[in-house]
Structure formats: structure tokens, C-alpha cells
Amino acid sequence: MRLKRTHKCGELNKSHSGQSVVVSGWVNNWRDHGGLFFIDLRDRYGKVQIVFSPEDENLYQVAKKLRTEYVVAVAGKVSPRPAEALNKELATGEIEVLAEEIEILNPSKTTPFEIKDYIDVSEDVRLKYRYLDLRRPRLQQTMLLRHQIAQATREFFNGEGFVEIETPILTKSTPEGARDFLVPSRLQGGKFYALPQSPQTYKQILMVAGFDRYYQIVKCFRDEDLRKDRQPEFTQIDVEMSFVDEEDVLGTMEKFMKQLFQKVLGIELVTPFPRMTYQEAMDRFGSDKPDTRFGLELNEIGDIFKSTDFKVFKNVLAENGYIGALVVPEAAGYSRKQIDDLTAWTRSVGGSGLAHLKFANGALEGGISKFLSENESRELIGRLQLSGEALILVVADPRRELAQTILGFLRNKLAETLQLIDAGKHQLHWTVDFPLLEYSEEEKRYVARHHPFTSPKLEDMHLLDSAPEQVRARAYDLIYNGNEISGGSIRIHRRDLQEQVFRSLKIGAEEAEAKFGFLLEALEFGAPPHGGIAFGFDRLVMLLAGTNSIRDVITFPKTASAVGLMEQTPSRVDEKQLRELYINVIKE
RNA sequence: GGGAUCGUAGUUCAGUUGGUUAGAACGCCGGCCUGUCACGCCGGAGGUCGCGAGUUCGAGUCUCGUCGGUCCCGCCA
């Protein structure tokens, strides 16, 4: 490298006029005018136009060979552009660099796609050539934003007296929760480490150690199926505090969000954020992470049909089930086919069916309207406060939460297709009072809804044995526009209570000792009351960046089948490596 | 584990009822052009229609399987 950079491409402006500079970067574009040759040189700070004129014959001939994505350094003089050649679209559009010397640092093959934001490329090609996609301005900006959010996070927590402490990546496999990624041990043949699903137990032990306020921006790993907002490895802002209750944790996080939104989006959030119990969220929105930017709330209508002759409703109610309705004025004109499609979709997400009727001219018509008695119709019109025209969608199922969830799915889908969502809104709220436990049909036992270290509400303790599903947890989720961006709880800090919860989870004393003995023991050595929370960092960046997929904010993401297309991971390994690890691969 | 959808030139796509030599735009290559800036003009190259079977006189098009991308349900303490 002969020519050493003196300035960034994007920083040059009129004030540099007359200066001799060296700029380095990639050829974004070239324009050959026969007598004049232009290139736009790009680095991560921006673009600047370089002019080559035939006056220097040697230089001109070299320049004419330049092609897109060649890496070059150019020495030249910054010069104001002729008045008729200003470019208002370009930050550096008032000047250009008159080239005096060029060094081609590296040529480039023709890239599989152009390094320009407006070029549309399928995601598999982008992922295979991730370094080229990352070279485009949009992803560069996203990664810079991610960096800024990380810095703002550190700044906030440092300022609040939190200590950033690292925890192990080689940890212990635990029975509860997500599937672990396992790492075989060579020195302890036949045994395995697990990658952390979160640093949960470590951060609690840091509280026992007296660190009082801990945070960490940390990688976590979960071997579960992927989604557009779920990757097998992801980043959390992990937080834990001692001598606190819910108010301290929520208040601190509200302050954090307020500062972050102010800094990143220039938006003033109003605190405290509204709180909604899990029960209310399910009843009103059919989701524990409702998008409250629009209405379209659920209406429970089961009681209207106490003595109905309509078999479907009658059977559901006989099983103490749930009947709920959505009133959708915007879909009043839906055709038979549109409703059929909606019904099919409802089945595809696990619903048993979808009933409908329409309200028009002051009366119910179509769909199931003919099965309703006059009384039922009148009561329904009153309950749903019908006026004007509307499509009414009804879900009935013996399983209350499932029925509500299906309606919640419908609510979100309709809001999207009918464009009921105001994209300018920023709605944050807490969902609180989650059930501590839920029954797992698969495992035939209660499992922790959050995690097994979550403290039950003291006033519900007496139900732990008699009605476990009614016990509420001291847990909270932070919801932003229908996305769960954070969740946490006040933890159990006494061994006896922890053992009692383990018993409810049917984790025997022996198993508890083997899996969590270290934590149980730690709780006996003066564990302070503590609680915490963890943010999905990637999700947070995704939402603040206004993108639709977590893959857009992760530097090297995996595909939906957890494959790295660029480096081709996962891959097979040598027999020798396997032997050292005492591993025998089962051949298909 | 289940469902939906997509796969045609380097890229994004079109391709009729199954019928001649599979097209367009951008990119690429060559030529021309002294003020362009997603330059312009002229010319050119470029195809395992994801892969494999099947139906058919004939398959990019229909059927089955398979691989891959994306989305959803389950799963994700």
C-alpha cells in the first residue's frame, strides 16, 4: 500500500476545497464519458466522486480499467464542482476529487449482486455472500445502530451502578426449559457441557456473592426451531438486582427504555408503562403479548347461549368451554371465499373451526345466524354493541385459553390485512401476574411457565398444592407493539421455598440436588432477596431498526433450518475428533 | 413433527391450453461519447428451467419423490 488514507470518502465537503487528500474505498460505480472518467468511491462513511481527465494519459488509462468493487486508493485535490454539475442527492455533492495518482489495492470479480440498497436479492444469495451484503449501506447502518444501542445500554447500566460481569459459556445442562446445545468433554469422556440458555443461575449466584447490581450483554443458545425473530444463538441484555421488589426492577427498566428510545429514535416515552395482568391480556386480546396499537378486542359471549339449541355452542358450554367473538366492521364486505380462507387459516393455526355471521340493516344474517333464537340474537347485538355493518367471527372451544389464543391470532392477522395498525405508535406495557405453572400434557406434570426459580406470589402460596394452576408468579414481561422484548421475575431466595416449588414441578429431591444442588446450597449461605430481567437484544435492535427479521440485525445469521450458508455450518468432523470425544455417530 | 409457499441467465422476474430456436430488465464483455452521477447510444456473450423419476408423440408447464429458501402452528423455562 503506497497511498495512505488521509480522509474518509463521506466526510469531504466544500471546506476541504484545495486540499490534497488520499481517499480509499470501493468503486461503487463508474461512468466512462470518452474524454472524462468518473468513479464514485465508497467507504462506510459515504461516497465521493473522483474525476480522471485525459490530461495525465497514464493515469487515465489505468482509471479506465476500473470496475465496480475494485479496492483503490486515490490521491488528488478536492475541488468545488462546476455549478451545473452539483449533486444535491449526495452529501459530498458540492465537491469532487481531481485524481492525481491511483493505486489499485485489489481488483474484484463481478459480484453476484450489486452492492446497492435498491438491488433486490433473495435471502439465500445474500447469506451465502454475507460479506457483500454487509458491505451495502443498509446493513452497515443497521450494524452501526446495533453498536449504538449496545453502547447506550452500557452507558445506562454503568450510570445506575450496575457491574458488567462475564459468566461461563461452557455450563451445565438443566432439565427445564429449552433444548440445550451440548458440548462433549474430552477430558471427562462421556460427559457434556451445555451452552447457556441464559446465565440465569450464575447471575443469581452473583447476587449471593454480593454484587448487588449485575448486567451483561451476553450470547445465549437454545436448540429449538427458528422463526423470523428467533435464532439458535442470540444476545440478551441480562440484568439482576438485590434487595428489590417488582417496583424497583420495573422502574429501572422503564428508565432504561425511556433513555434508549430518546437517544435512538428521539421519542419521549411516558412512564410508568401501563400494566396488564395475564388474565386481562388473555380475556381482552387473546395473547400474553398483545399489540395494543389497535382495538378489535375479544368479546366473551358464552353466557348468552346458556340454554341454546345450537349444538356446537351447547356442547362447548357443557364442557365449561369458551365462546368469544371479534367484531370487524372493516371486513363487513368480506366474500364467502375470503371467509372460507380465514376459516382454513384458523384451522392451520390449531383452531377447531371458525363461525361467522354478519350484521347489516340492524339484524344478524348469514353464517350461523339461523341457529340463534330471537332472544340470543337480541342479546348478542346488545353485547357486541352492533351498529352499522360488521363481520362477526366466533370461536368456540372447550379449551378456554386455546380459543382465546386463536381469536388473538385472528385479531393480529386481521389487523395486518385490514391495515388497522398505526405504524407511528410506540406502545409499551407490562404483562404481569403470570401463572407460575402450567400443566404439560406431554410430560404429565406441571412445568414452570417462566423458569423454576421464579417466586410465587406470597398470597397465592396456600394454593401451591391444592390448585397449582391458580398460583400467580412474581413475573413480568415487557411488551412493545405486540413483541415480547423482555421478561423476568423476582426469584426465590430461600432453600425451603425453592424445594417446595421443585416438588410442585415433580422434580425429586435427588434430581434437584444433582441438577441444582449448587444453587440450593448457595441459597443457604445468606442469599439476599433478588430479582431481574433479560432483554432480547436482537429483537430490540430489530424493532428500533424498523426491520422485520432478526436476521437483518445479526451479523452472520442462520437460515430457518439453522444452517450457515456462507461457511456451511454445521459440518461433519473427522473420525479422529469424534474418537477423542468418545462419540459414535449413528449412521442413518 | 405438521402446514403453506417459492425455486427459469450473475441478479430480479415473465413464460399462454403441454407444442418452433425459453424471453425482459439490470449486471457482465466490446465499441463510441469531456460534466455524468442508478449517465447515454450501438453491438455481444450468457440457461443442468434446483435435482431424480413418471405420464405423454412432446414437459419450464402435469404427477410423485427429493433438496434448498421463506412464513406459520407445535416447540421456544
Determine Rg (CA atoms, Å): 30 Å
CATH architecture classification name of the domain at 294-417 = 2-Layer Sandwich
Determine the CATH superfamily of the domain at 294-417: GAD-like domain
Which stretches are poorly predicted, pLDDT < 50 over at least 5 residues? none
Which sheet architecture does the biggest sheet show? 8 strands, mixed
The percent of residues in helical segments reads 25-40%
Strand content: 15-25%
Terminal-residue CA separation: 53 Å
Structure class: alpha+beta
Q: Give me the side-by-side strand order of the main sheet.
A: 6-9-10-22-21-20-17-11
CATH topology of the domain at 294-417: Gyrase A, domain 2
Please, how many helices? 15
Q: Average pLDDT across residues?
A: 96
Overall morphology: globular
CATH class term of the domain at 294-417: Alpha Beta
Strand element count = 22
Which descriptors would you attach to this protein?
588 residues; alpha+beta; OB fold (Dihydrolipoamide Acetyltransferase, E2P); Gyrase A, domain 2; eight-stranded mixed β-sheet; five-stranded mixed β-barrel; 15 helices; globular; RNA-binding
In a nutshell, what does this entry contain?
The chain is of the alpha+beta class and 588 residues long.
